[in-house]
Write a structure and sequence with these properties.
CATH class of chain A: Alpha Beta
Distance between the termini of chain B: 29 Å
Helix content of chain B: 40-55%
Strand order of the largest sheet of chain B: 2-1-3-4
Shape of chain A: globular
Largest sheet of chain A: 5 strands, mixed
Distance between the termini of chain A: 31 Å
Chains: A alpha+beta (about 130), B alpha+beta (about 160), C alpha/beta (about 625)
Strand content of chain B: 5-15%
Largest sheet of chain B: 4 strands, mixed
Radius of gyration of chain B: 18 Å
Oligomer: heterotrimer
CATH topology of chain A: Glutaredoxin
CATH superfamily of chain A: Glutaredoxin
Order of helices and strands of chain B: HHHHEHHEEEH
Helix content of chain A: 25-40%
Number of helices of chain B: 7
CATH architecture of chain A: 3-Layer(aba) Sandwich
Shape of chain B: elongated
Number of domains of chain A: 1
Chain lengths: ~130, ~160, ~625
């Protein structure tokens, strides 16, 4: 990796947008698994495995899976955020394998938010 | 003893035999042997030309070091404030009683478990918290821990 | 679609617009995502167009916080109609203003068609837990992959570093920090800029920049979360500090209990080095800076600056007298700038968004005096007996009631709030009648507690205040380094007295002796941790003296917690004879047949509480 110059920062911003933002065609759905110490001890690794398993089973190739740190709401871990293209992100809480499967089949494959497990849509105010 | 010498040498070399890295070296020793064996302390003192006093001063000052071996599954019961108000201290007493241990840091006779209280693992949102062999259990209780420990012991005995 | 959380549109209508008020508000998203997609350019274009049609007095453009819908940014909500536009670009603006703002015809092609979920799911901004939070230090929480440096850069990471290296002199950076009023988030509340200035001016080379990630306070884990979730924000903050004070060597001192944080920090440093964001000649501006990690071995006292530095030099972490400041004679006796994780994480944001923006959040006035107020936000770990536990970031000046009841959702299981403990072992408890206290550095100190690193432990009627005091003192006895007499012996005596009180063995007059001993330790200890050690006792005595007196005079624990003063029994009306407690009791102290009420044999009972834990009918009574 070459050393960055200042103008490279903007290049990375644009490249990243292509990868992480859904509208530029990298994917249709982005799933973020929140993996801080809290999340992991509440079972986030199992959730991640289940997500990967569901994707493999479905054969879908338009889903981006990524991890992130603690979402702050520790008493409701494990959590994932599901972002379908052109829709606001939805946060799901208190998950287990069964719920993940259901969310995958309903929300990710068919587009219906599983309201029983959803905490909220959107995200909080930053800076 | 020769094997030990090589292992200690590796650790010392990794930290460039620099005395200011003594804490890091001892951390590696602790991780490898599950305690600071006296013979290793002597070897380090000789190799780095420092006093045993200095090594033991550090080994007894920091909570991360023990002078007797920990169990194969060290059990850390969090007694941070959040866990304390949610009964962490009681869980500690109950696990110790179940395992027939008299003091913290002691290992069970079969060398499988040792128990100590730790001040905050940093999972306060999930209090009370117990870590067993590095695996963190949140929102736990005395009975849940008893079951888990029994399960681990059965697994070990089966092997 | 939501508008700015925490500032709703109804309020907005009345708050500005002069005598006549504005008829229309354009709520343009100013979150990082939308800003990087160009929302400021759109703001300028909008204002320009509005001016053109003479609408500036009728239509107001408001920059909001992140709507969380960054993928479709820049986005804008027009109020009061509630029309939501997305994917805006500067070239859309003239048409939009002419059609919608002037002629009142919303532009359909720029609109967002909501998916037909009929808003069964509440919006993030409507959820109490998130509504009052304002994320600065945690700005990237849950949004980026902490192990990918590119994702941090994509959210404007390292731009602040680029800015200081190319546009600012070190003295200007320091001036900016002083003017921002940023105060140390580790607990002390010392103005960051003032510390940087002293360090820059101190004679001696090389200088060191150190990040304190020891986080020894039990009940606090914000530093762990920041490092785990957004390590580069800390590295960037440290690099800016290094440029300001004239250092090229940085260290992070992190506790070994945080393996995941350590792992992510190591990766972040390696990635930053590879990109040349750490190392020699960063951004080709002739600035060198690198960071190494020191892993602590478990000692609370190492959070104290002199002890931390002793530990980094490979010695036991014993503090020294502080008449010589570490900022002048610190690590290896060289000038050392030590700040906390959360402090560093705030730095890039202040550089990027400016002093004016930062000082608009928080309390007091820091324009003349950096101690004049508390600016920005503070991250708290809201834990204990509260419904929603977790990490919350709130603007300074918010009340304890808002944090505990609006964000935390109040006390679970129908119990009554008793007190909240802040500031860790150096802090104190705050009772119910002070719940409307605005939270900032000075207010918390005034009531006998302190900000500390940000632990906020909520306690209910079942928590005994004497036990809490004993808990902290026993913690401190165990963690005392043993160097000075008040810290070593004074705390031991305090601990003895508290244990006697909890055991029902204390005599009349003990409370006066306790107070006297506490005051001696406060005034005579060597380091700040010793000096503040009696705070948990003094503050519980101040607000809950009656509980102490009940223990001493009546040999009674009002909260039903102190083992020697309580007995366990079973309520025969509630017990359905399920046998669960009898099976689990380690002493076999519970008698009873199936489907008949059980009884506890108090001679055998060791008060371990397991029966109460397992009972599904809440039939175990503790008195």
């Amino acid at each position: 990796m070459p050393k960055l110059r200042i103008e490279d920062l903007d290049k990375i911003v644009n490249e990243q947008k292509k990868i992480t933002s859904l509208r530029d065609g990298a994917g249709r759905v982005k799933i973020t698994v929140h993996m801080g110490t809290c999340g992991i001890s509440a079972g986030a690794r199992k959730i991640m495995t289940e997500v990967m398993h569901c994707i493999e089973e479905s054969g879908a190739s338009d889903i981006i899976v990524t991890t992130s740190g603690c979402a702050g709401f520790c008493s409701r871990e494990p959590m994932i955020t599901v972002e379908v293209i052109e829709q606001a992100p939805v946060k799901y809480v208190d998950l287990d394998k069964k719920k993940v499967k259901e969310i995958f089949d309903e929300h990710i494959m068919k587009g219906n938010v599983v309201k029983d497990y959803a905490l909220a849509i959107g995200s909080e105010q930053t800076s | 003893m020769e094997v030990q010498k090589i292992e200690v040498d590796n650790i010392l070399n990794h930290w460039k035999r620099d005395k200011s890295n003594l804490i890091e070296m001892l951390e590696d020793v602790q991780e490898h042997y599950r305690y600071i064996p006296p013979q290793v302390a002597i070897t380090i003192a000789e190799e780095l030309d420092i006093s045993m006093n200095r090594i033991f001063h550090i080994a007894t000052f920091y909570k991360g070091f023990t002078l007797e071996p920990r169990g194969k599954y060290p059990i850390s019961v969090c007694t941070g404030t959040a866990c304390h108000v949610k009964g962490g201290t009681r869980i500690l007493e109950n696990i110790m009683r179940d395992l027939d241990l008299e003091r913290e840091g002691q290992a069970t006779e079969d060398q499988l478990f040792s128990v100590e209280s730790v001040r905050c693992i940093g999972c306060c949102g999930l209090a009370p918290v117990v870590a067993i062999g590095g695996e963190v259990h949140g929102k736990t209780s005395s009975t849940k821990m008893k079951k888990f420990i029994n399960k681990l012991r059965k697994k070990e005995q089966a092997q | 679609m939501s508008v700015t959380p925490g500032k709703n549109v109804d309020e907005m209508k009345y708050e500005s617009g002069g005598a006549n008020g504005y008829r229309m508000y354009l709520m343009l998203c100013g979150g990082t995502g939308c800003v990087s997609a160009g929302s400021y350019e759109i703001k300028n274009a909008l204002e320009h167009e509005l001016e053109k049609y003479n609408l500036s007095n009728e239509v107001s453009v408001v920059m909001t916080g992140c709507n969380g819908f960054c993928a479709n940014g820049p986005i804008m909500v027009v109020q009061p109609d509630g029309i939501f536009y997305q994917f805006l670009s500067v070239k859309d603006v003239p048409h939009l203003v002419e059609e919608h703002m002037l002629k009142g015809r919303p532009v359909e092609k720029l609109m967002f068609t909501p998916p037909d979920e009929k808003s069964v799911v509440p919006k993030m901004s409507d959820i109490g837990f998130f509504k009052k939070q304002r994320l600065l230090a945690l700005r990237n929480r849950g949004l980026i992959d902490p192990e990918k440096i590119e994702e941090y850069i994509a959210r404007d990471g390292y731009k602040a570093l680029a800015k200081v290296l190319t546009e600012m002199k070190p003295e200007e950076v320091i001036q900016e920090m002083i003017a921002s009023g940023l105060r140390g988030r580790g607990g002390g509340g010392f103005p960051t800029g003032v510390k940087w200035k002293t360090c820059r001016e101190a004679p001696g080379e090389p200088k060191y920049v150190v990040c304190n990630a020891d986080e020894g306070d039990p009940g606090a884990y914000m530093d762990r979360s920041i490092i785990e979730g957004d390590p580069h924000s800390v590295l960037e903050g440290m690099a800016i500090a290094a440029y300001a004070v004239g250092s090229s060597n940085g260290y992070v001192y992190i506790r070994h209990e945080y393996p995941l944080a350590l792992e992510r920090l190591e990766k972040a440093i390696a990635d930053a080095r590879e990109y040349g964001l750490l190392g020699k000649n960063i951004f080709d501006q002739g600035f060198d800076f690198d960071i190494n990690i020191h892993c602590g071995a478990g000692a609370f006292v190492c959070g104290e600056s002199t002890a931390l530095m002793a530990s980094m030099e490979g010695r036991p972490g014993e503090p020294r007298a502080k008449y010589i400041h570490t900022v002048e004679h610190g690590l290896w006796d060289k000038p050392t700038n030590l700040n906390n994780v959360e402090t560093y994480a705030n730095v890039p944001l202040i550089v990027q968004r400016g002093v004016k923006w930062f000082t608009s959040i928080g309390t007091g006035d820091v324009s003349e005096n950096p101690w004049g107020g508390s600016k920005g936000t503070k991250v708290f770990s809201l834990v204990g007996k509260v419904r929603n536990t977790g990490l919350v970031e709130v603007p300074m000046g918010i009340t304890l009631r808002e944090i505990i009841f609006d964000i935390g959702g109040g006390i679970p299981n129908g119990k009554k709030f008793k007190a909240v403990q802040t500031g860790g072992p150096s802090g104190g408890v705050i009772p119910e009648d002070l719940l409307d206290l605005p939270v900032d550095f000075d207010q918390l100190t005034r009531v006998g507690s302190m900000m500390g690193s940000g632990g906020m432990i909520v306690m209910d009627e079942d928590d005994c205040m004497v036990d809490i005091a004993r808990y902290f003192i026993d913690f401190l006895v165990g963690e005392s380094c043993g160097k000075c007499l008040p810290g070593r012996e004074g705390l031991t005596q305090i601990s003895r007295m508290l244990n006697d009180i909890c055991d029902g063995q204390a005599q009349e007059g003990v409370l006066e002796l306790l107070e006297e001993t506490c005051n001696t330790v406060t005034s005579c200890s060597l380091c700040a941790l010793g000096g503040s050690a009696p705070n948990p006792v003094l503050s519980t005595l101040r607000y809950f003296r009656d509980e102490y007196e009940a223990h001493v005079r009546e040999k009674r624990c009002p909260a039903g917690l102190c083992k020697n003063l309580i007995t366990y029994s079973i309520d025969p009306d509630k017990c359905n004879g399920c046998m669960l407690c009898a099976r689990e009791c380690p002493q076999n102290a519970i008698d009873g047949e199936k489907k008949k009420p059980h009884k506890i044999n108090t001679d055998l009972c060791i008060k371990c509480g397991i029966c109460k834990d397992v009972c599904n009918r809440d039939a175990v009574i503790v008195k």
